[in-house]
Each structure stands twice: as structure tokens, then as C-alpha cells.
Design goal:
The complex is a heterotrimer of chains A (238), B (300) and C (336). Chain A has 10 helices and 10 strands. Chain A is an alpha/beta fold. In chain A, helix 3 packs parallel to helix 6. Chain A starts with 5 loop residues before the first strand and ends with a helix. Chain C contains 15 helices and 4 strands. The chains are: A alpha/beta (238), B mainly alpha (300), C mainly alpha (336).
Chain lengths: 238, 300, 336
Amino acid sequence: MAEPLLQLEEVEARYGPVKALHGVSLTVAEGEIVAVLGANGAGKTTTLRAISGTVRRSGAIRFAGKSIAGRSPEAVARLGIAHVPEGRGTLSELSVAENLRLGAYVRRGRASIQEDEQRVLAHFPWLGDRRNQRAGTLSGGEQQMLALARALMLRPRLVLLDEPSLGLAPRVVAEIFRIVGELNEREGLTVLVVEQNAILALEAASRAYVLEVGRVALEGGSETLRRNESVRRSYLGY
Amino acid sequence: MLLAFDWTQLAQQTVIGLSAGGLWALLALALVLIYRSTGVVNFAQGEMAMFSTFIAWSLIHHGLSYWQAFFLTLAISFAGGVALERVVIRPVERAPVLTVVIVTLGLFFLVDGAARWFWSSETRTLPNAFSTRPITVAGVAFSIQDLGNIAVSLGVVALLFALFQFTKLGLALRATASNPDESRLVGIRVSWMLALGWGLAAAMGAVSGMLTAPALASFDQNLMQPVLLYAFAGAVLGGISSPFGAVVGALLLGVFVNLIGTYVDWIGTDLRLPVALAVILGVLLVRPAGLFGRASARRV
Amino acid sequence: MRRALGIGAWLLTVAAGLGVFLVLPHLVSDFHSRDLARAGVFFIAIVGLNLLTGYTGQISLGHGALMAIGGYTTAALVVHEHWRDVWTIPLAGIAAGIVGFIIGIPALRLSGLYLALATFGFAVAIPSLLKKFSGLTGGTQGLRFLESAPLQVTGLTGKVTIFGHTMTQNHFLYYLTWSIGIVGFALAWLIVRGRLGRVFRSVRDSEIAAVSSGVNLAATKTLAFALSGVYAGVAGALLAIQDEIVNPLTYTFLLSILVLVGAVVGGLGSLPGLVLGALFVQYLPKISTHVSGRSGVRDFVYGAAIIVVMILLPTGAGGFLRRVARPLTTWLYTRP
């Protein structure tokens, strides 16, 4: 088997004196959607932050054959990992168009960036009409989609998607997951998604990890996990 | 009474006020630039500008023309600003705001001391950037120097606006100021953007200093201290978070201070600044975020 | 047992502090105790500023001007009314407290930088106003105690006798200043520990949360300004008494800056470090002068020292002391 695109081995992370991850290991292969499930405080968000370098971490993190364990967030972004953080991951004082341009900040070549902008806007047609609107004035769902669109502008090899459903209406959440699925099918986009809503996440992902107090408690294919008794009781609620 | 009013004098004094206000505006913009990215007023901004002016003086002393020295000093100041940020501000990037404020006060003493150390404290002069000849417009005589200062100030402001609005670097600088954490996630080297901001601010201060000095009969190391006070006041008046506001605030202040100094006898030169500050305080009590500042929503 | 040890350690620290206070002038030259007295002036002003900035979160760049109010109150009473210099101190404190209260009023609308500008404006305005109203203030010349009212200056003959002890004028100034400083410090400590201290801190940490817990914001802020003003006024009065002269040059913006530097170096929101802050502000220029007599080099060293201290101790000496003492305090206050 080829080396996975992303591989975490015994990764620990801490906020000041508080340890949030006690050794997380996971892999993501090229072209996969992988979900990370777990209760509040299980370390889902911290796992993504450990990958993008926005939290102090130790342990081995390899991406596309390179160790990224000691790299800064900007260096990680330059390697092609787009982190869509929890909440409204947009620069609210800048316009929609500027947010998109920033997504491609580390890339060169004006022509291919403009091409990508058209391609990305095809997935979010309404964004095109609001190019000059300040991002902060968009609705929550729109901002979440803008954040996703901005991440795509990086032409990322991996998207880290943190809790896209947070505080949004079910219809909007479904739309976001539909687009993520579409991107994965058509363009082979690789996604590591953290989600509270386990039903949705397991539907979109092919595999998933369940975190409990900073450790991986369970892992497996989405189907297997969906049938797992404890997952069903704790996270699916039936 | 109305007939006796001298409109020529009003026009002249307004232009003189705009000329001074334009130079304050440049330093005010430098303050805003650093304030927006770090939340700190750089108290050393004026002294840095003074230091730049002394560099220009030395260059001219060694045979360069005024404008050659002007552009060379800009480059040196930019590099110096970047270097200061790296060496002095970087280590306290994550410290409490007041700590950073005290560091800039320390920088005030340090730069001021360095200038007194390298250049003795005797007074000196800088040649005029523009002709001192007056020019007559619609029957009113203005000094070319004042008009030149206004033109250069507005030109620098326009350049800066273009940099921020139309270039990728400017976009990154704005993104950094608005949300550094998010900016890092798209790959912006935020720490360098802060240094770049210091470089730009230092260069703008240098322009301000190099235009302020020729207008004076002579200058010494205290050159920019009053300018810093007015720039600070102007920036706060306009709204310290708004570059546009800072420019307008400083220009308004320039005209206002010059006019009350001219028309209200008991104020004279001594009380100009206190009166100006009192007026600003009045404005702030009505509009706490300044004339053009947006009151930011606070997290509870 | 450990609690008793804790109280013992605390008492020992206080006793050692008082011991140093009593003995110190006898260990240094008579002339030098005047420098120490000057450090005491800074100490008092810094304790006052810390109550305001460190505990209530209101920044002030105008404490030098509040000191001017105190200093000129003393000077005017001595020179015009022929009061004995030391008896003017309470009135100087009250006068500056009232002015502090008045400055506190705009603080109700302004916060952060805007308040900084308002207090800054006050600091800049005071020297100009002092020059303008020369009838009362003596203008640029200032007021000289020795020329106008030499009899009111304590210790002019070179000796002062209090409670049967005779001491030199410099020792008298040292003991006067630092006694007031210690009392002021103790009062500040009681305030910070008590209900009012909690109210102050709640305003610093979150105004909205404070208001919703029933704190009267207007009263608290103006009270903090007034209290802080009293300290500054007393410090200003002592400065005038030590100098035997007041003039606008003493109370420039630089003085406000020095007080602020002292408070931050000492450690905002903490009291024990403030002695170090005061000594820093008093002695650094002197040490810098030793490095070189040239004015430029002196200021350069001064600025560099401030920067280095802030880089090494970003939370001031107070934060540093807390960190160093933590193992001890944790040991003392946890049950075995």
C-alpha cells in the first residue's frame, strides 16, 4: 500500500499546562473523506489544530512524505493544507472577492488563479453576485461556504474542515455536505472533517475515528461504525 | 465689521494649516498603521522620524542633493523600521499591551539618545525642498513650500492607499491587521507583515521629518516631538483605527490650530496644543470612537 | 502548622522590610539618603497609579500633572500663606484627589487609547497653564521656598528634632517620605484586599460583567481616579518639599512617563514589585550617567535598559516575584 497522504502518530498537544491530546494516531489517504467524531472536549478541534500548527504539539505528523510536526501554520498552508477553522472562518472586514484572493495567497500565476476562481464559484454561484460585499455582513451559512470556497482557492491537497455545521440551519448544513461530497467525487478532494453531527459525517465520510478524552477510542469504515452499538448510543442517538 | 474681515489672510492661514496638517497626517498614518496591526501606539514614531531626518542631513552634508538624500533616507528608514521590529518588538509580541507600550517608550529614549550621541546637539538646517518664492493664486499669495508639502503628503497618502487596496502585499497587510490567526492559515507570514508595517511607518515618518525640518529656521533632536503630539491627537480625532480618518483628522487639526493661533489672541503659541486637545476631548465625548472610527463590538 | 509558617514568613518579610527602611540611611552617605527620599516620591505616585491602571484597568498618562497639582498646592500655601511645609501635605493630596476625580469623569465615556489621550492632554496642558497664570504660580520662574518663606522649610538649619531624635535634613526627608510611602502602601494593600479591590478588579476584567453584578461603574471609576490622585498629590507635595522649589520644568510629560514606566516595571496588578519599580526609575538615569556623561549615551542606555527589562520581565518585577515565590506559597497553602 502506498504511503497515506497524512499520517499522525502518537500526537500530543497542550494549551499551556493543560494537555488536550494524549497520543492520537490517524491516517488519511489521497482522495478520501475521513471524519473525526467525539463529544465536546474530546480533542477533535485540537487534532486539526495540531496538524495546521496552531497549537503546541509533539509526536510525528507526516504529510505527503514530509514531516510537518515542527512547522508554523503559514508553512503548513504553503504545503497545500487548507484549514477551515471552527466558526466563521472568514476575514470579516474584507470583501468576498478579497477573501477568495487571499485563499490563493501562496500561489503564483494570475491566469490559473482566475480560472480556479471561476471553477470554485461554480459550486457557490451566489458568491459571485456578492463579490464586493464585506464578508462580515454575510449570513452564518454564507460565511461558512465562503470559508470553504477560500480554502479551495489554495488548490489544496488536503482540506481540514472544522465543525462546518456549527450554529447553522439543517438545510444549510446539508448543502455544505452536498458540496463537499461533490468536490470529493468530481475533483478527488481529500478532506479531514471534524463534526458533532455524527449522522451527517458518517454519511459523507468513508472512514472515521472516534475520539474520547484526547485519544482514539474507535476507528473503522463508516458502515461498521454506524452499526457499532456504543457509537449508535453515544453519537447517533438511536 | 464683516467688510473688514480679511479673506486673503484666512485663505493663507488655511493653506499654512493644511501644510502643517499634511505633515502631521503622515506621522498619524504611521501611528495608525502600527496601531491597526498590534493595538499599540508607537511613542517612538516621532523620534524615529527625527533620526531619519538626521540621516538625510548627513547625506546632504556629504554632497547629495536634497531629493537624492530624500529617497536614500526613505530606503534606509524602511530597513531600519523592519530591523527595529525584529529586534525590539518581536520578543514582546505576545506580552500585555501596556508592556509593548513601555517598550516603545524605551525606544523613544533609545532613538533620541542615539541621535544625540551620533550628532551633537547643536542646531542645524536642512535645505528647502521647494522654492521659497511665493506664488499668487487668484490674488492671494501662497508659499510654494506649503503647497509642495501638501502635494507630497497627499501623494504619499495616495501611494499608500494604492498599495493597500490594489496589491497582493497590501491585501496581506490588511488581512494581518484584521485577523492575524486566520491570516496565518492562508499562508501569510504574519510576523513579517508586522515588520513590514514598521518599515512602512518608519518611511512615512521619514517623509514627515524631512519636510518638517526645512520649514524651520533650525532644528535639533526635539524636531518631531510636537509633531508626534499633533499626529497622535489628529489620529485619535479621526478614529485611530481608520487610516482615512487619521489623515482627515490631522488636516482638520492643522487648520484649526493655525486658525485659533491666528485669530484668538490670548491663545498664542503656548496654549495651542492644550486648546486643541480640549476640543478633541469634546469631540470624543460625543463620538467615543473618533470622527471616522467604527466602534468595534466587544466580546463579553 | 503550615498556615502558621505562612503567617510567620509573611511577618518576617514585613519586619525585614521595616528594618531595611529604618537602617538604610545610616548605611549610605547623608547626601545619598536624599536620592532615596526621591525614590520614595516615585514609590508613592507609582502605588497610586497602580491602583488605577493595575487594578481598575484605566490608563493614565497624566500622573505627572496630578503631581504638579500637589506640588503647587504645597508651594502656594508655603509661599503665599506661610504654612509650615509638612502641614500642607494633606491638603495637596485632597486637591489632587479632587482634580483626579474631575479627570475621571471623561473616563466614563472613554476607554483605552482615548482615555490615554485625554490624560495625555491634561499632562501636556498643565505646564503651559502653570506658565500662563503666573500670579499664583510664579510663571516660568516657579515658586522658591527659600526666598519667600525660609522659616517654613523644615530643617533649614541643618538639624531636625522629632520625638527627641535629632537628625539631618536629608534623613528627615527620607524618613518623612518613606513613612508616608509605607502607610500609603499599607492602605493600598488593604483596599486591594477588600471589597473595593474586588470591585476595582471586576471593572478591569469586564465592565459589562461588573455592571450586571451591581457595580456602579461611574462611582468606581471616578473613585479610583480620585484615590490615585490623592497619592499623586502627596507625592507631588513631597517632591516640592524636597526641592524647596516648584517650577513647570519639573512636571513635564516626562514625569508622567516615568511614573508609568515605574508602575509597569514594578508590575501592574501587584504591589510588592513597586519598590523595585520606584528604584528603577530613580536610579537608572544615575547609573546611565555613570556609563557615560554624554547626554546621548545616557538616554540611549536608559532606553535600552527599559526595553531589556520589559523583554526579560514582560509582567514586571511583580509578575517575576510571583513566579519565583510560587513553589513556596503553594507549599505553604496546600494541606500535606
